[in-house]
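Supplementary notes for students who missed Thursday's class. We covered one full example, reproduced here. Read the sequence, then the structure, then the short commentary at the end.
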Amino acid sequence: MTQYDVVLIIFSLFAFVISVSKVTGGITRAISRLESSVEQLGSALSELKSTLVGFREGNARTHTELFERIEALECRVVRLETREERCCEI
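Structure (token representation):
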């Protein structure tokens, strides 16, 4: 082997190490971005769940109030109808 062959082998090894480290660095950056995206998605999902629970509780209260109003109105209608019937009979 000549001196040029040794230099070419060293240069080839150096180029190989650089190319492998470049690919490894790209993969590492992609994985770290993916991890941060997953963390953000998890926190957004937790916030969405808590908002949904709040909506459900609010809706349950509102529905209870509406059903109570409907029952009160039904009672008033029944009272008015029975009064009219009594007035018509008299």
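Commentary. Residues 46 and 52 are 10 Å apart (CA to CA). The chain has one helix and no strands. If anything here is unclear, bring it to office hours.
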